[in-house]
Amino acid sequence: MARMTFLSCLLFALVTSACGAAKKEVAAQPPPPRPPAVYTVGRTLLGLPGQDRVELSAAPVTPLAGWLTPVAVPSPDARYVAYNAWRQLREDDPALSWEDQGITAGDPLARPSIRLHDLGTGSDRTYVDGGFSLAWRGDGAIAYFKGAEREYRAGVRYVGDVFVRDSVDGQARRWTPRADRYVVAGWAGPTLLVYRVRAGEALDVLALDGPGKRRTLASNAGLVAISPDGTSALVEHGPETGPPQVVLLAVSNGAKLASLDLTTVDPSVGVVGYSGDWQGDIVAAPSASGIVLLRVAGRRIELARTMRAAAGQGVAEPRFVGASSVTGWTSTSSGGAFVDCDRVTGRCARAVPLPTARGAEGFPAWRRPAYNPSRPQEGEQ
């Protein structure tokens, strides 16, 4: 099956759970705990240092990328938050066929965009019309995908190119040699890592070293995390290519530095997912049962700990919070929830902020982390 199967299954669970929960929410309930990191809940951004809450002009969502890219990314200088938005152009009920709804191939259904919120002035504007997914480099350069057309159309593959600006208002330069379906993942030093989404939702991890300089870093793979110094990338391969495994690659040339067959260390882990986090020598990766902590030491990868959510629940986008906690996003019987896990004990607890937040057009009030996956985070490359 395709490399995005893990995402699709988890996305379906979260959507159905959140939709059912919307009818049960009671506004009079006491406010639940705040999340331990920076998160968006509907149009509200929580957890930014020095700011109680920030109201955005639209709810950050990523229908065309899922968990391959964050919904919102704070700039390195903490002045801006760039985020993905989605505007429906017509109703599209997933329970009905396009034919039953009078939709034909090529009909415009929605328009994705990247918006830019200035935390100093409060202004909120469209930054890229017809684009989605972005990554901010430590020196302020910003990379993003822009579609060849602004509208997402029924039955038409949404293709375009990756552009890079040296600053927010700098000139946009095209880095991809030809149009394709790309999703920007993050900076690894001066190299930009992006996904190419092939037929059947299969994923390749590409390395862009500059305008027109594209190479394949890993085929049929998902990017788990980028090392803190930006020199290495940990990728995962699912069962469709053999035993589930994680592989450590040198970003500069794609050399294989280490690998770990997950079935040999703990068969219950199953498939490890993408969009994890890397702190020190520990990588937090999502799995079908919760969160997996992997220790990367030189040219060796080992399983450090498994942290399980409630039975049968996966966790998406785990992020390190300080030295002792990992937080992520999961589904529950009463709606979507944040999970806060202790790295020492391996125990996880739930926290659900702002259950009455407004959602985007046709979407529940998504609760998603806002983060910058690029490495290194600081300093000019």
Describe this structure in words.
With 381 residues, the protein is mainly beta. It has one domain (5-369): Methylamine Dehydrogenase, Chain H (7 Propeller), CATH 2.130.10.10. The protein has one helix at 5-22; strands at residues 39-41, 44-46, 53-55, 72-74, 80-88, 108-118, 124-129, 131-136, 142-147, 152-153, 160-165, 173-174, 182-188, 191-197, 203-210, 213-219, 222-226, 232-237, 245-250, 256-261, 277-279, 282-287, 290-297, 300-308, 316-321, 325-332, 335-342, 348-351, 367-369. Strand 15 and strand 16 (213-219) form a beta hairpin.
Distance from N terminus to C terminus (CA atoms, Å) equals 38 Å
Q: What is the ordering of alpha helices and beta strands? A: HEEEEEEEEEEEEEEEEEEEEEEEEEEEEE
**Number of beta strands:** 29
Could you state the CATH homologous superfamily? YVTN repeat-like/Quinoprotein amine dehydrogenase
Radius of gyration: 20 Å
Poorly predicted regions are 1-33
Proportion in helices: under 10%
Tally of individual helices:
1
What is the overall pLDDT average?
83
CATH architecture: 7 Propeller
Shape: globular
CATH class category label: Mainly Beta
Largest sheet: 5 strands, antiparallel
What is the number of domains?
A: 1
* CATH fold topology: Methylamine Dehydrogenase, Chain H
Summarize the structure.
This protein has a single domain, classed as YVTN repeat-like/Quinoprotein amine dehydrogenase (Methylamine Dehydrogenase, Chain H, 7 Propeller), CATH 2.130.10. Helices cover 5% and strands 44% of the residues.
Topology readout:
Blueprint: H1 5-22, E1 39-41, E2 44-46, E3 53-55, E4 72-74, E5 80-88, E6 108-118, E7 124-129, E8 131-136, E9 142-147, E10 152-153, E11 160-165, E12 173-174, E13 182-188, E14 191-197, E15 203-210, E16 213-219, E17 222-226, E18 232-237, E19 245-250, E20 256-261, E21 277-279, E22 282-287, E23 290-297, E24 300-308, E25 316-321, E26 325-332, E27 335-342, E28 348-351, E29 367-369
Antiparallel strand pairs: 1-2, 1-29, 2-3, 4-5, 5-6, 6-7, 6-10, 8-9, 9-11, 11-12, 13-14, 14-15, 15-16, 17-18, 18-19, 19-20, 21-22, 22-23, 23-24, 25-26, 26-27, 27-28
